[in-house]
Design brief:
There is one protein chain. By secondary structure, the chain is an alpha/beta fold. The protein has nine helices and eight strands. It has an eight-stranded parallel beta sheet. The chain is globular, with a radius of gyration of 17 Å. Bound molecules: zinc ion (2 copies).
Length: about 250
């Protein structure tokens, strides 16, 4: 069994065949999918899917791309949404200095506000970090002892991974670990304790080899788990069992 701890099955890309995607995931041994909100409307959709399908869980929050669109009412609505039974995390939130779709200072402000909100709600956070390692670490270190969660699509080096582990965070590994040039990520996967590792698809994005370039979906996570098993030199079942247990420990799913 596996848990896809980060997907966006609420997105338009899955409108036509969402049930087929869930069916294929079940057949591939996926026990649960955590579908992650990127703005208020999208978070509402995520919660709706979690209510409808037993294998789907939801996270609510506003992605750094949309930081500029947040108003005080957004937070009020997210708080209400977060009380739904199958909301198990707050996110995805963070910083994206690669695309900078919202200004940097605005992203940092909104990230801080949403970290506070996660503390208030008592939910683990799902962190998005793109080209913002230093600022992400500075921010989450301020919440040491108050907040943990996962750094999704981890893109830092082993040293950063260790700092995240010290703060109580999990490291989530996407399909990019199968890409030829992902040397640093494979190094992290090889060295960190399996007890702190999660697997994710980030579907519909980042399909692993041999599906690279296609729309990603939860069933493809088996390639990622297979690669992790190969890198660590352990049987596939060990990776599946342990990462599933980790997802249970962090999200209660
Ligand atoms: Zn992300
Ligand atoms: Zn995502």
């Amino acid at each position: 069994m596996l848990v896809d701890t980060h997907a966006h099955i609420e997105l338009q890309e899955f409108e036509k065949d969402r049930e087929g995607v869930l069916e294929r995931a079940k057949k591939a041994g996926i026990k649960a999918i955590l579908t992650v909100g990127i703005d208020l409307d999208d978070s509402k959709k995520a919660v709706g899917l979690a209510e409808r399908y037993s294998m789907v869980y939801a996270a609510v929050g506003v992605h750094p791309h949309d930081a500029s669109g947040i108003t005080p009412e957004t937070y009020e609505e997210l708080k209400t949404l977060a009380r739904a039974e199958k909301v198990v995390a707050y996110g995805e939130i963070g910083l994206d200095f690669f695309r900078n779709r919202s200004p940097k200072d605005m992203q940092i402000k909104r990230f801080g506000e949403q970290l506070d909100l996660s503390v208030e709600l008592g939910l683990p956070v799902i962190i998005h970090d793109r080209d913002a390692h230093k600022e992400i670490m500075d921010m989450i270190e301020c919440y040491k002892g108050k907040l943990t969660g996962v750094v999704h699509c981890f893109s830092g080096d082993y040293e950063m991974a260790c700092r995240c582990l010290d703060l109580g965070y999990y490291i989530s590994v996407p399909g990019t670990v199968t890409y030829k040039n992902s040397v640093m990520l494979r190094d992290v996967v090889r060295k960190i304790p399996l007890e702190r590792l999660l697997v994710e698809t980030d579907a519909p994005f980042l399909a692993p080899e041999p599906k690279r370039g296609k729309r990603n979906e939860s069933s493809f996570i088996t390639y990622t788990a297979g690669k992790i098993a190969e890198i660590r030199g352990v049987p596939y079942e060990v990776v599946a069992t342990r990462t599933t247990q980790n997802a249970g420990d962090l999200f209660g799913i």
